Amino acid sequence: MTGSLVRRLILLDLYLMRWPVAGALIAGAVSIALLPLSPVSAYVGGVSLICVIVILNIVLVMTFIVQEKKDKVQIFMLSLPVSTTQYTAAKLVANAIAFAGSWIALTVGAVAVIDVSALPDGSVPFLVTVLAYLLMYYCVLLGTGLASDRAGWHATVITVGNVSVNFLIPWLLSRPSVYRNRTGPVAVWTEDIVAVLVVETIVAVTALWLGLYVRSRRTDFV
Amino acid sequence: MTDRVIEVVGVEKAYRFFRLGSVSLELEAGQIMGFVGPNGAGKSTLMRILMGMIRYDRGAVRVLGHPIPEEQASAKRDVGFVSEDMRLHGNVTLAWYMKFVASIYPGWDAAYADVLLRRFNLHADQDIKALSHGERVKAMLLLVLARRPRLLLLDEPTTGLDPVARHEILTELMAVVEDERRAILFSSHNTQDVEQISDQITFIDRGRIIDSSDKETFIDRWRRLHLDVPSGVTLPSLQDVVETKTSGHIAVVITKAYSPAIESIYQRAGARVREVQRMTLEEIFVANVMSNRKEQAA
Fold first, then answer.
1. CB A7 within 8 A of CB A89
2. Which of B49, B51, B53 to substitute to test the interface with A, most A CBs within 10 Å?
3. pTM of this prediction?
4. Tens digit of pLDDT for each residue in B175-205?
5. Which of A153, A178, B84, B264 could staple B156 via S-S, CB 3.0–4.6 A?
6. ipTM, interface predicted TM-score of the complex
7. Alpha carbons A29 and A45: distance in angstroms, whole number
């Protein structure tokens, strides 16, 4: 019964998240559609795609993990026949499915549009690295949401996450290998790009592990 | 053979500014225990420990025979928990929640749920966010009662409700324990509600259980004596007297263990017993808390 209840809790969360996810997918699709139209629309499309993913990240974590606890909905959920660990697992899996599913769909969509349009394939590693950064940002915010109830921590992660994207892009473009290849006809996964992707993966996994570890050490769940 | 649904032995939980200190409690099937304490006494902390939501530092807890928190998921299959501050997701309807809860609990009684809908004057198609506080509490109670759990843990469910809503809820709870296998632990600082439905009463204050007994014993033990005390007469100091107030030649004495012998002792000392009054549960609660605080301070 418990296993099926965890599955139900995941489905419940996915059901409640359906509108933000659908909105993000529609807005993301529009952003991607803008990419090949002109240099200006490519810029607008790229920026709005980043904004859509960042907003989805914040909405999913803050509404369905942080706010659920603040609103005391969590007390009801924990009154059901699940352990606190199973409840946390259900929240994590549902949230990750909603975000990662949207992220994968939008990333694949953007890469596909670049592939079939006149946009240079050389921009794919740059785009994927920036979008992977947003996935890392999500993992850090999710880890923070799981570990802490303090609004100050959440606000700090959101502020740093949002602002840091503005530094990441010029920094990436300042790498000669990235700058040189981004307008080329072939996607080149340079050492710089691979190194950044590895760091993003390590930070994401560490943040999630830390979030779960801190949460598992807590003695009060409500 | 006793059928204990709750066994709490020496449970301790320390916070920075609050400490639940060595709490022990038992509840048997068929009983309604009123768990009475002032705000911040530790009622909710203990309720949440029973639900596995808060881990205790020391002691042992069993709910329906399951050790908590280790087997909380198994225990919660047959426990219904409602607390005053509990909320539901606002953007779905009560009908949606009824379907969700019914899908989890095979024992969901749809016919009883419909009866409760009518009795509580709730509308299944109404969004949760549109419910008033009283309707929300009744909705949560419906979701719990229609599962027909063996144990109900109710943490101040009547707080903030109007008298009619309170009456509706208390009436329903009294009907629940007509089934002798079921039990209720009902926390409140409203002694009227507790007096109305409980057969067992436990007082808690500042994280300590200060008294626990069946309701009749409480009402029977605690008395207020009005005495005439002539000049030159000193009232003897008795162990079970928790409060003595004097004004001129009149004294009012509260005892927690009344017997006619107490009257004789005062009479032998030269006082005249004018009246012996029974006390309400609220008066007993307040006197109990105040005398315990005085003992602690001494």
1. no
2. B53
3. 0.88
4. 887 777 889 999 988 888 888 889 999 999 9
5. B84
6. 0.87
7. 9
